[in-house]
Write a structure and sequence with these properties.
Blueprint: H1 2-19, H2 25-28, E1 54-59, E2 62-69, E3 73-80, H3 87-92, E4 95-103, H4 105-108, E5 111-120, E6 133-142, E7 145-154, E8 165-175, E9 179-186, E10 189-197, E11 202-208, H5 220-226, E12 228-235
Antiparallel strand pairs: 1-2, 1-12, 2-3, 3-4, 4-5, 5-6, 6-7, 7-8, 8-9, 9-10, 10-11, 11-12
């Protein structure tokens, strides 16, 4: 298993460097994150899809679809197909993502975005999802790198405590023209990995989550199941 895994990654690196052209960091960060909204591994970026553009993402059994409006709004849905074998239950437990770009660094030095992440589509039942967040993001692009920081407020159960905000932070840089390195921090959790541009439409994700807890993994199989995330994104 280890040899197959290493062989696949080596082949992808070789294929990408032979067949693709240089990709701007913004292109990567308009692709869906694991949580659905366009961004890094698990945290959002300041970028939204351009008007009338769309993106699709699949990480394990988590499907996302986003659509851009007016170059400043991105809306999308998230469905977890591992949740149930019933299509009705999957759709019932779907989530909505919404992002607004309020400032653009071309005009205001930094970019600023706000949004809602994984808001339950079924609002008639009590909201219990721990990932239902309101967030604010500030970012600065420096050549082919991005520095991003932000705050998120968990809205599960509509907790009135407005001071309970979580900090997140990310650094990303394009290397070898077609690979984006990602390092991020979110509420005491560290994630890292990279996005590989296969062509102008398809991006492959390799992430390791909870890297500060890797020592707990008992085997390579445990690592793949609990810490490794593979994803594929399509953007048009």
């Amino acid at each position: 298993m280890k040899r197959i895994f290493i062989t696949i990654i080596t082949w992808m690196f070789f294929t990408v460097n032979v067949n693709t052209q240089s990709v701007d960091v913004e292109h990567f960060l308009r692709c869906p994150s694991v949580n659905g909204v366009s961004g890094f591994a698990y945290i959002p970026s300041v970028y939204v899809l351009h008007s009338n553009k769309f993106s699709l993402g699949l990480h394990r059994f988590e499907f996302k679809a986003n659509y851009g409006l007016f170059d400043i709004i991105e809306t999308g849905v998230y469905f977890d197909f591992s949740f149930s074998s019933s299509l009705f239950d999957i759709l019932k437990n779907g989530k909505l993502n919404l992002k607004f770009q309020l400032l653009n660094e071309e005009q205001f030095f930094v970019s600023f975005t706000s949004g809602i992440e994984k808001c339950p589509l079924n609002m008639f039942e009590k909201v219990k999802d721990k990932n239902f967040n309101l967030y604010f993001v500030v970012s600065k692009k420096i050549i082919d790198a991005i520095i991003t920081t932000g705050l998120e407020k968990n809205l599960s159960g509509f907790d009135p405590n407005l001071t309970d905000f979580g900090l997140f932070f990310a650094i990303s840089k394009v290397i070898y023209d077609t690979i984006l390195l990602v390092v991020e921090y979110k509420r005491d959790i560290y994630n890292a990995g990279f996005k590989i541009s296969m062509n102008s439409n398809i991006t492959i994700d390799f992430f390791i989550k909870n890297i500060d807890r890797l020592s707990i993994a008992n085997s390579f199989g445990d690592f793949l199941q609990s810490y490794f995330i593979f994803g594929i994104n399509y953007i048009q």
